[in-house]
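Weekly structure sync, notes
Attendees: PL (lead), two postdocs, one rotation student
Agenda item 3: pending single-chain targets
PL asked that the sequence for the first pending target be pasted directly into the notes so everyone works from the same version. It is reproduced below exactly as submitted, 95 residues in total.
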Amino acid sequence: MDIFVGMRTHSLILSSAMGVPPVGIMTYPKNRGYMRTIGLEDHLVAFRDLSADSFFEKIDAVFRNRKAVKEKMIPLVHREKQKASQAAGYLEEYL
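Predicted structure, written out during the meeting:
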């Protein structure tokens, strides 16, 4: 896939973890938080501002710049994966 379009937080996480730049509909504050963490907050369309034109403009912009978006996103996603792995390690002694 070149880009992913979704509105559920876990779908945005999964696509970015697989190296696929997401475009999201912000239906929950956690969508914004996650997208901010991976440097892609500007790739969200707020649900209250959603229109066919605004959404397709965002999708088109990300698609046309997908290589640069991916290059920007990958190091930040890698950092998040490392943090998740470390967090799981803290629980290891209790398992």
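Discussion points:
- The beta strands are 4-6, 22-26, 44-46.
- The chain has one domain: 4-94.
Action: rotation student to compare against the earlier draft before next sync.
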